[in-house]
Design goal:
Elements lengths: L1 H15 L4 E5 L5 E3 L8 E7 L10 E8 L2 E5 L5 E3 L5 E5 L5 E8 L3 E10 L5 E11 L1 H39 L5 H15 L2 H13 L5 H14 L1 H8 L6 H14 L3 H27 L6 H12 L1 H15 L2 H13 L5 H14 L1 H8 L4 H25 L5 H9 L3 H20 L3 H11 L23 H32 L4 H24 L7 H30 L13 H26 L2 H31 L4 H29 L12
Parallel strand pairs: 2-10
Antiparallel strand pairs: 1-3, 3-8, 4-7, 4-9, 5-8, 6-7, 9-10
């Protein structure tokens, strides 16, 4: 036991003893291109601990302790090659200096150790930390990873919109002036579709279409800012290891399931997997960059400057059109250790400013109210970024300490900071919604000609990316077109019968209907380019036929106006079966136009059914008029030309009724294409 004790004491004293040698790193380049030789040799200086003089002819062992590379002897230094492929022993020269060259291997961090052992066997060692970079691989993988991330985000968002489209529409359209409900709706819709940009674009479209007030829109935008934080929180859970299984499951569901909804959910899952795969790709390529001092210094300088960091976050988000992508990229940088928490928060604040550009773009070409809604989104995020940047300026301040306490993981801290920013911003702006609405109206004042005329179509091209909402917009504008067409043909009938109404006014209405047909047809046709569900792809042909039928009704108004030139006075003042039939045809036609507008407006099946009943009566009137035409010539003395004009008028009413019947049948059929022309 005594011997063991003395041995332990001796070993302890040796381990605690100071080496007779001092070993020091000399200047070297800490990064280089993969496959090439490092720009400067790895050099150490050995001096005596006592005198500080250079130690000449001493052996220094160089070895690669981490990463990939190959040590190569330096010229002018005596090298003793060892059996180990990653080690070289080099003798110090007259200046106590030993040096080796390094051939860089594949990309990644490399650690090279240099060890000198004194006469007592006590080692002195230092380590070179450097990084092997493949610039092309870095650029390709970052761009490719970001592209995969955006592809996944788009796939997930698009299919979630398809799955939740009707629900999303009903949530937004049932809003009241209650700002709390508006905030809740905005948060729910954004959480459903995983895209604040989609929600704000839809909101701007609704304001442009007068379906939502500016104050409601402000509430929805506030809610959307909360809903968009869900993506960051999902990323922070670090379930990226499940990326490939999710892609596989999603592909199986989307490719082999016969159920449309399952196919869409499969694409949602596949999109989420691609999102995580993109994050993994970007994260994997960024980790080696930590070993490069210039890279670290660049990101440190860049992210520690609040103005520069916020500007960078804004510009990148404007470029990629997705705050979720840039927040994810910021989380990756923070998780890789390339930027600190403070810099990441500044970047996130810039991301939140940049995402408002989507709403601004959506408002281009829209009415003043839509521009005001987009301005509200910008003001909310800019004001919030300003005061949060002031809070984050103090590295050891209350806000920064609070964020650090939420988690020990850097990525989770960034996600939590993003959530805090948006939640606190919403709480701050809730009582300020009326004031913010007024401010937006001051910044973007309404002009005297802002109210659209009856025939103005409001078709927002930004809604095309959300087919369920675009189709809803078409339905609304078709109703407007049907109302004008019905009004025109009714006035034309009255004009024929009594000379009432201006022929020029009726013709102008027909011209407006023609313009509406053109614009609606173009807009509806553009939807074929979008990612439509099976039902939507069957709905579009019916929509196009309905637009055409509405326009054909208006065409018969022109025929009636032209037929008026062949008669005089008030037709209904004359007695006889033809004039009675003409009056009844007019009444039936007016009833049909009213019922069609009601059916289009609310998808009222009872109103559509009434149209079919009235159309049956119209056919009967037209048949009886033909039968009585010959009798009227002999019995009542009506001139041949006048009687023929009246018969033509009844025929025009019947033809217009056929087109109205087609519209009613499409409504009764659920607006779905059944493989034949409506009315066949």
């Amino acid at each position: 036991m005594v011997r063991v004790f003395f041995i332990l004491v001796l070993l302890s004293s040796i381990s605690m003893a100071q080496s007779e040698l001092n070993i020091k790193l000399l200047n070297y380049t800490d990064y280089g291109n993969s496959g090439e030789e490092l720009g400067t040799p790895l050099t150490v200086e050995i001096t005596s601990s006592e005198s500080g003089d250079p130690v000449v002819g001493y052996q220094v062992h160089f070895s690669i302790s981490g990463g990939h590379g190959e040590l190569v002897p330096s010229e002018g230094y005596y090298t003793i090659e060892e059996d180990s492929a990653d080690g070289l022993v080099v003798q110090t020269d007259e200046n106590g200096v030993a040096s080796v060259k390094l051939q860089l291997g594949k990309m990644g961090e490399i650690t090279v150790s240099a060890t000198a052992t004194d006469s007592r066997g006590i080692p002195a060692s230092v380590s070179f930390s450097l990084v092997s970079l493949d610039i092309r691989a870095i650029v390709f993988q970052i761009i490719g990873g970001l592209a995969v991330f955006l592809l996944g985000m788009q796939m997930m968002s698009t299919n979630l919109q398809q799955v939740a489209g009707n629900r999303m529409k009903s949530i937004l359209r049932k809003l009241t002036a209650n700002r709390f409900m508006a905030i809740t709706a905005g948060a729910l819709v954004t959480a459903l579709v995983q895209s604040s940009s989609a929600t704000t674009v839809i909101t701007v479209g609704f304001v442009n279409s007068a379906l939502m007030t500016l104050q409601q829109a402000v509430g929805v935008v506030l809610g959307a800012n909360i809903g968009t934080t869900i993506t960051g929180q999902l990323i922070a859970f670090k379930i990226t290891t499940y990326a490939f299984p999710m892609i596989a499951i999603g592909f199986i569901l989307s490719a082999f399931s016969k159920n449309t909804k399952r196919q869409m959910w499969g694409k949602v899952i596949m999109g989420l997997g691609l999102l995580f795969l993109g994050m993994t790709t970007m994260s994997g390529i960024m980790k080696p960059l930590r070993g490069s001092t210039p890279v670290r210094e660049f990101f440190t300088t860049f992210s520690s400057n609040p103005i520069l960091a916020i500007l960078a976050g804004t510009l990148v988000t404007v470029f990629v059109q997705s705050s979720s992508a840039t927040v994810g990229l910021t989380m990756t940088l923070a998780g890789s250790g390339l930027i600190g928490l403070q810099g990441a928060i500044f970047l996130v604040l810039g991301d939140n400013i940049g995402t408002t550009i989507t709403a601004q773009l959506a408002a281009l070409g829209s009415n003043r109210a839509a521009k005001q809604a987009a301005m509200a989104h910008t003001l909310i995020n800019v004001f919030g970024a300003v005061y949060f940047a002031l809070l984050a300026l103090d590295e050891n301040g209350f806000f920064m300490k609070l964020v650090r306490r939420t988690s020990s993981d850097a990525m989770r801290q960034v996600a939590n900071a993003h959530t805090m920013f948006n939640v606190v911003n919403v709480l701050l702006f809730i009582p300020l919604v009326p004031a913010l609405t007024k401010l937006c109206r001051i910044i973007v004042p309404s002009g005297p000609d802002e109210d659209p005329v009856e025939s103005d179509l409001i078709l927002d091209s930004n809604l095309l990316a959300t087919p369920v909402l675009a189709l809803d917009s078409i339905d609304r504008e078709m109703t407007k077109m049907a109302s004008i067409s019905g009004k025109g043909v009714t006035q034309a009938a009255e004009h024929f019968l009594s000379g009432k109404h201006s022929a020029k006014k009726i013709m102008n209405m027909e011209d407006r209907v023609d313009d509406m047909q053109r614009d609606l047809t173009v807009y509806a046709s553009q939807l074929f380019k979008e990612n439509l569900s099976y039902d939507q792809s069957l709905t579009l042909p019916v929509v196009l036929h309905t637009i055409n039928d509405i326009e054909r009704v208006s065409d018969h108004a022109v025929n009636m106006v032209e037929a008026r030139h062949r008669v005089e006075g008030n037709i209904l003042d004359s007695e006889g079966p033809l004039t009675t039939a003409a009056g009844e045809a007019y009444q039936v036609l007016r009833g049909m136009t009213e019922q069609v507008v009601a059916a289009l407006e609310t998808h009222d099946l009872k109103a559509a059914q009434k149209v079919l009943i009235l159309e049956g009566r119209m056919n009967q009137i037209e048949k009886e008029a033909r039968d009585n035409y010959g009798k009227s010539l002999a019995t009542y003395g009506v001139s041949n030309l006048t009687g023929l004009a009246i018969l033509d008028f009844i025929n025009y009413c019947e033809r217009a009724g056929d087109h109205l019947k087609n519209i009613a049948q499409s409504i009764l059929g659920g607006g779905i294409w059944h493989g034949q022309e409506p009315g066949e």
